[in-house]
Amino acid sequence: MAPAAPDVSASLGPLPGQNPPPSAAPEPVLFASPNVTETDIEAVTAVLRSGWLTTGFESAGLESDLQDYLGTAHAVAVSSCTAALEIALAHLRLPNGARVGVPAWTFASTALAAVHNSLQPVLIDADPGSLNLSPTALEPALAQGLDAVIAVHFGGVPVDKAVRDLCTASGVPLIEDAAHALGASDDRGLIGGPGTPAACFSFYATKNLTSAEGGALTTDDPELAAFARTYRLHGMSADSLARYRPGATAGYDVHEPGIKANLPDVLAALARSQLRRFVEMQDRRRHLLHRYRRNLEPAGIRFVPEVVSLGSADHLAALLLPEGTDRGAVVANLRAAGIQTSIHFQPLHHLQWFAANAEIGPGGLPVCDEAAPRALSLPLHLGLTIADVDRVCTALLDEVAR
Ligand SMILES: Cc1ncc(COP(=O)(O)O)c(C=O)c1O
Fold it and tell me: Quick one: CA torsion of 374, 315, 35, 293, rounded to 10 degrees?
């Protein structure tokens, strides 16, 4: 029989040999926790027993499942969203130093994907309501000259259509960082679906669908899809199945200076299994987030996005603390009460390497600067009960009232 999945919360308890705390501490509320069922475990162990661990039929199966779910022509499974971004940028074949507009309000890897392609990130300010890339800030940056743009659907909230329109009007390719946005939709339908030149998804452990580590690139463009299939495996002309499955005879050539970014079958099986119940998982997520808003908004807590986005994938319970709140104290006191939180994001220009090396777009980054000390993300995962959400809200409101 497969061993039981480890209880993550146990790792937060006393170490073996340590005395338990004198009074029973309340159960910790983790910021994120993967939703792994027995069915997921069976799917992964079936691959472990199959004799084929790396990229093969499961990975191909995940690609076709994603194509069906999103309605996209091509899905290419890769080792991370970062890799998908790197591949999408490499396919543009921009000269060294070409300028890529990226939101300052994102995770480092959005911009590092450009850096790893020898491109220059140009940081663009956020829309104050959603903290997504601001069309108003993007317009003068495009006028100044950008060679590509990466837009992030922050927290799963689709980026303003005006961003797409501006890029189209300027003839500048747009890559979507959809790390938070599986299940999100805008006027085109599901993000990463038909009409998408390049969307990059993450299946990292904290995401709304996980393969532990992993990602996918989806596109309408058969040429990009073919490039990605080669580029994700060193630019080789034949993959592992073609070379090593029983009876295989293929040799290989190297057509591109690719990267190592294929998704192994062991991981693909987990993502595939989760995708089968994804709609149900998203319903639960939406319900929890709705409860957060219902509890906190009447008390004046400002969520991001400020206005509920019906197309959101509800990836984060992100908010802005009231101006002047000592966020460090709030985080520490919530931690002491057993509640983990996170911060999405520290804007890139506040991080050492980007402060020294990234360019800042015209108009600067005032919205990001204003939001940065106030941003806080509350726990949001399927292991939470409504009582957990209520407990987090009560603790947060106590902190804010201090
Ligand atoms: C907006 C954004 N883009 C990209 C990534 C990178 O995803 P991955 O870890 O799959 O490379 C993350 C990771 O959390 C993210 O938040």
Answer: 70
CA 201 – ligand 1 centroid, Å? 8
pLDDT in tens, the chain (402 residues): 334 433 333 333 344 444 555 556 778 999 999 999 999 999 999 999 999 999 999 999 999 999 999 999 999 999 999 999 999 999 999 999 999 999 999 999 999 999 999 999 999 999 999 999 999 999 999 999 999 999 999 999 999 999 999 999 999 999 999 999 999 999 999 999 999 999 999 999 999 999 999 999 999 999 999 999 999 999 999 888 888 888 888 889 999 999 999 999 999 999 999 999 999 999 999 999 999 999 999 999 999 999 999 999 999 999 999 999 999 999 999 999 999 999 999 999 999 999 999 999 999 999 999 999 999 999 999 999 999 999 999 999 999 998
Phi/psi at 189 (nearest 5 deg)?
Answer: 110, -150
Angle at 221 between CA 216 and CA 226, to 5 degrees: 65
Provide the residue range defining the domain that includes 212: 38-275
- Assess whether 119 and 231 both reside in one domain: yes
Closest ligand 1 atom to residue 214 Cα is 10
Looking from the CA of residue 106, the nearest atom of ligand 1 is 1
Question: Rg of the chain over CA atoms, in angstroms?
Answer: 22
Atom of ligand 1 at shortest range from CA of 206:
14
Residue 394 and residue 317 share a domain: yes
| Active site amino acids | 207
Mutation test of ligand 1: which of 204, 208, 232, 259 has the most ligand atoms closer than 8 Å to its C-beta? 204
Read off the pTM: 0.93
